[in-house]
Design a protein that fits this description.
With about 300 residues, the protein is an alpha/beta fold. The protein folds into two domains: about 190 residues, no CATH class; about 70 residues, no CATH class. It has six helices and 20 strands. α1 crosses α6 and α3 crosses α5. It is globular.
């Protein structure tokens, strides 16, 4: 074994061991992942609001919600999450539009109300009407909205194979979710978010720099699970990435729901280990996530 191979072997072994340790302690992902609500000011009208995850703010509510996670009041964790929110927003806005939906769009009335993974761009405000919308298939969804985002009362975002953790809503204006809305995804909106009465949401409301208000709502932080079908696609993409240029670094990282653009070339050896059963797919994904978390994929 050459010196370079020995070096690569030890580097990759350390990555896998470190990643395994981090996965067991549930600290993967960026600094916003545990937050259900992140705001500069947070107001809550009713004690019936339930937040399954962490809450962060500078100015808090007079009426406390029910919280199953931790509350961070202008501490270092809160500040780090604010920085991560800005990074997530910048990443989402840097993605090239795959579909331009037009100006001032009711998402339930265009595109048949059904969306597959992609980057959807609206040059004005966007709304979700009474017919609701369906997100069809596992993958990354980004809705870039150059204006406000609103939902009417009783509207629904249906997930048909999609995961809330992989859906990003990125408006430049304020967001308002109408009463009894069933919503899904991560809202990245420093302009502020108003969540009307009895909204049920699987996702996160990240409005660092703005105000978030709730009223007898139920919001749960989403999980990310790589489905079996997606795992097969991922192994195929990883193999192509390691053997040719048909799959780029960015394509593979996006497939793993990561934000980087460059993967160190020596890490391709891990694909061989994975395909030959020397390490598990989870080991490989965890090692890649560890590199992404440590800024090694920038």
């Amino acid at each position: 074994m050459t010196k370079i191979n020995i070096k690569s072997f030890f580097i990759m072994s350390i990555l896998i061991l470190s990643a395994s340790s981090m996965a067991q302690n549930h600290v993967f992902g960026d600094s916003t992942n545990s937050f259900v609500i992140l705001a500069s000011s947070y107001t809550n009208t009713s004690p019936g609001t339930s937040i399954a995850g962490d809450l962060g703010y500078t100015t808090g509510p007079a009426v406390q919600p029910i919280i199953s996670g931790n509350t961070h009041v202008a501490d270092s964790v809160y500040s780090q999450a604010g920085t991560a929110q800005k990074d997530e927003t910048s990443f989402a806005n840097s993605r090239v539009c795959t579909t331009n939906l037009g100006t001032t769009v009711d998402l339930s009335l265009v595109h048949g109300g059904v969306y597959t993974p992609g980057v959807y761009c609206i040059t004005g405000a966007a709304s979700i009407g009474a017919k609701g919308i369906t997100l069809l298939g596992n993958g990354i969804y980004i809705f870039k909205i150059n204006g406000a985002l609103t939902t009417v009362a009783n509207s629904v975002v249906h997930l048909n194979g999609a995961q809330a953790s992989m859906v990003s809503w990125v408006p430049t204006g304020a967001t308002t979710l109408g009463a009894n809305t069933k919503f899904a995804g991560i809202i990245l909106d420093a302009a502020g978010v108003t969540i009307s009465k009895d909204v049920s949401m699987i996702g996160r409301v990240l409005a660092f720099g703005g105000t978030v208000s709730t009223d007898a709502d139920t919001i749960t932080v989403p999980s990310y699970v790589m489905a079996d079908m997606h795992k097969a696609d991922f192994i195929n993409s990883a193999t192509k990435w390691s053997e040719s240029s048909s799959v780029s670094d960015t394509d593979l990282l996006n497939n793993m729901h990561m934000h980087g653009t460059h993967i160190p070339s020596w890490s391709k050896k891990m694909v061989g280990w994975m395909t030959h059963g020397q390490i598990s797919q989870d080991d490989f994904v965890n090692a890649m996530k560890y590199m992404d978390d440590k800024g090694m994929t920038k």
